[in-house]
Write a structure and sequence with these properties.
The chain contains 15 helices and 19 strands. It is an alpha/beta fold and about 475 residues long. It folds into 2 domains: about 150 residues, 3-Layer(aba) Sandwich (Leucine Aminopeptidase, subunit E, domain 1), CATH 3.40.220; about 300 residues, Zn peptidases (Aminopeptidase). The radius of gyration is 23 Å and the shape is elongated.
């Protein structure tokens, strides 16, 4: 899709559709006011009749409106003005784009940004790009049709360009996650990463099974033992900051399919387990955006890639693993495999001299029980760094909530036969027990763990996004890199 910035008179734009926005607590202003005047007050009359409410995600089409060149004006509700921010801008534009993409349209114009800041414009453009892409990768009859051309009316050209990169990177992550597991596995993910690095100017290093063995990554390798698909560790670097400055590290869990191993999941729980590599996809997508935007910072992205399958060679309950750090781990559940992968990848990040770390993982169902499907869990060993990550997520409108990491929780992962075990005490506090396990491998480096098991994959569509992968936290990671 081609995205263009324009300052043309919006009522004279020759497009298949024109999108304007209305707040719930205000009449039409800016572009909506221009359309209202051109159509003889049509929008105000519809507001008076309560056909247009301005509520978030409310859509009202105006067909063949007099006074505009577009055959369709789509009015999207933006919610309350005082609650409007970058998240609302992303979702509002995405809602309109999703509605319009239900059928093929060559040229669509968005005129939402009356007085918007560059941050809001970036978010709106990113949302418009994300909203018109679905998960229908292999359907002959598509349910979503990305536009050939998207025009953004008003704002700054630079903000539109940045928003385009962000939106395309969100969709990049979504595409990786939405691919079926016979297409997206450790080797093919690494191939995608290599191609992306070449296109974007990232340095890349891929550790194959032999290199992982030489590096003593016994925890990650154990998870891969049940699958014929060999594991990989992908390391991508963007080095545009001060020479010698400690890099910011993003670490992603990349379990390309999770059967649970010998602790086999039931059928219904396995249906969406192609999404268990969403953390790795998010990291690669964010690194793509950071490279294209040429941000002046040192960042390293790491993705631990395995397939977790049952077989005669699979990791067993009772096995004791030796992680790269030398710490021993008793396996009490082979379906608690993501933390075993991340244990070695976090140790590699520390070894690369990371100054601060964020890991992202679809790690625990317990986090979904605690926070629901729309909110990620945030856990940390360093409150100032945690606050920085939370602030970036809040600015982008990507919700998360901090869970406690009291020292007493460490007792939940104590083992009688090894240094630690890979499960907590029973059903309780499972998301925190997993985070306390990961904390053992960050070596005191400021670290934040994001458990994205809920929001990474939408089992039902949202007004602004189709079901399937969400691409959540790509924008947050870029925001962190921007400082």
């Amino acid at each position: 899709m081609l995205t263009k910035h324009t300052t043309s008179n919006l009522t004279q734009l020759s497009t298949d559709a024109l999108v304007v926005g209305v707040f719930a607590d205000a009449g039409p202003v800016g572009p909506a006011d221009q359309v209202d005047l051109a159509t003889g007050g049509a929008i105000r009359r519809l507001i008076e009749r309560k056909e247009i409410t301005g509520k978030a995600y409310d859509i009202t089409p105006l067909w063949l409106p007099a006074g505009t060149a577009a055959p369709l004006v789509l009015v999207v509700g933006l919610g309350a003005r005082d609650a409007f921010g970058r998240g609302a801008a992303f979702r509002g534009a995405a809602t309109a784009a999703k509605w319009l993409a239900a059928k093929p349209r060559k040229r669509v114009a968005f005129a939402l940004d009356a007085g918007w800041t560059s941050d809001l414009t970036e978010s709106g453009v990113a949302g418009a790009i994300a909203g018109c892409q679905g998960q229908d990768l292999y359907r002959a009859e598509k349910s979503r049709h990305p536009f050939d051309e998207l025009l953004w009316v008003g704002g700054l050209s630079e903000a539109v360009q940045t928003g385009t990169v962000l939106g395309e990177s969100v969709n990049f992550a979504r595409r990786l996650v939405n691919e079926p597991p016979q297409v997206m596995y450790p080797e093919s993910f690494a191939a995608h990463a290599t191609e992306t690095a070449k296109e974007c100017g990232l340095d890349i290093e891929v550790w194959d099974e032999q290199r992982l063995e030489r590096e003593r990554c016994g925890s990650l390798l154990a998870v891969s033992k049940g699958s014929p698909r060999p594991p990989r560790l992908v390391i991508v670097r963007h080095q545009a900051g001060p020479s010698g400055a400690a890099p910011l590290a993003f670490v992603g869990k990349g379990v390309t399919f999770d059967s649970g191993g010998l602790s086999l999941k039931p059928n219904d729980s396995m249906k969406t387990m192609k999404c268990d590599m969403a953390g790795a996809a998010t990291v690669l997508a964010a690194m793509r955006a950071i490279a294209i935007l040429k941000l002046p910072v040192n960042v390293v992205g790491l993705a631990g890639l395995v397939e977790n399958m049952p077989s005669g060679t699979a990791m067993k309950l009772g096995d004791v693993l030796t992680a790269r750090s030398g710490r021993t781990i008793e396996v009490q559940n082979t379906d608690a495999e993501g933390r075993l992968v991340l244990a070695d990848v976090l140790d590699v990040a520390v070894g690369l001299g990371a100054g601060r770390i964020v890991d992202l993982a679809t790690l625990t169902g317990s986090c979904v029980v605690a926070l629901g499907m729309d909110v990620a869990g945030q856990m940390t060993n360093d409150q100032p760094w945690c606050d920085t990550v939370a602030s970036a997520a809040r600015a982008c409108g990507e919700p998360l909530w901090q869970l406690p990491m009291f020292p007493e929780y460490r007792d939940d992962i104590r083992s009688e036969v090894a240094d630690i075990r890979n499960t907590g005490e029973g059903r309780w506090g499972g998301a925190i027990a997993a985070a306390k396990f990961l904390e053992e491998f960050v070596g005191g480096v400021p670290w934040v763990h994001l458990d994205i098991a809920g929001p990474a994959f939408l089992e039902k569509p949202k007004p602004w996004l189709d079901a399937g992968a969400s691409g959540v936290f790509v924008r947050t990671l870029v925001e962190l890199a921007r400082g």
